Amino acid sequence: MHHRVVIVGGGTAGISVAARLRRQGIEDVVVVEPSSVHYYQPLWTLVGAGVTAVERTRRLESSVVPRGVRWVQDAVETIDPDAQEVVTRAGARIGYDALVLCPGIELAWDRVPGLAEAMETPFASTNYTVDLAPKTSDLVRKFRGGDALFAAPGTPIKCPGAPQKAAYLASDHWQRAGTLGAIDVTFATGAGGIFGVPEFARVLEGVVRRYGIDAKFGHELLRVDPDDRTATFATGDGEVELHYDLLHAVPPQRAPAFVRSSPLGGEGAFGWVPVDRHRLNHVRYPNVFSLGDVCDAPTSKTGAAIRRQAPVVVANLTAHLDQREPTARYDGYAACPFTTARGKMVLAEFDYSLSPHPTIPVIDTQRERTDMWLVKRFGLPAFYWNLMLRGLG
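The structure corresponding to this sequence follows.
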């Protein structure tokens, strides 16, 4: 097989790009995606908070693939960018004129010994998988007292604000239930601070104080002992061991193995695809574009970032096919909707400059707001399914 455009990944990025390409009149577009189910992952935070059902986060992949786009339901095994060919697990060889690489992220459980095993116990969970997010809700609801530990890596992860949201929503639940005083809540992260944009960091620091959360920065999770219920962290002063009765932990994340082992993957253990941060084309292969979680653009890995990246990729890919100079530029826009309580949210919007980049007129999104909570719970999912995946927003 040979196609004009091959898109590896049928998640948020892949489907958004496919829909926009079709609206631009680009034909012979193929999406290679093994999963039969498409997930709206930002809602998993609210699943973990017991606010919404996990069934509301998924639809059949066949229902979101744009009309006129061919879907190859198979996993990619290897990519040869010199031969301009993708090889699937079933042995299909798919040639391309242009490639869009957006397969998402792989959860690297193996980088933290004992973490995967801890998830099998009644004391640990994470909102980062569709199977475990409902478990988070059950653990939080039944917890009455003890050490509640929320851990997050300092290395890049999808939706980097999500680990904090889990801590805030759990603390809010315990506060409403009258049990927060009996719980020692710790948020331990490998990051150097609560958030990289000062204007929003000040708001989040106030949330941390309100709940009495012990925020520990520069704490990178090294290993977990699920039998003793202890988590060991690397710090600037050596290793520190923390006990937990409830653990919500986010595993480190990296590019999928077939990306890391290909010439398209970047150096180092994580293998993020190296791109021009503005044009989003590969630094060595001009007919390869990458966006979403897998690329190394220095901004947060969020759906909001993909929303701004997708039109840039489509414009520059179209220019490449037409043998024109790609001129569209991505400014690093991303957004983190911080759910700070049940019914309250702060919308942090920013760009490469790490300065606030508000897109909603009049409304002050630098404070906790009920209307922003409604946007998170109802508005954004509707926008996602009905507009973004159709190339309309």
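Residues 303-321 form the longest helix (19 residues).
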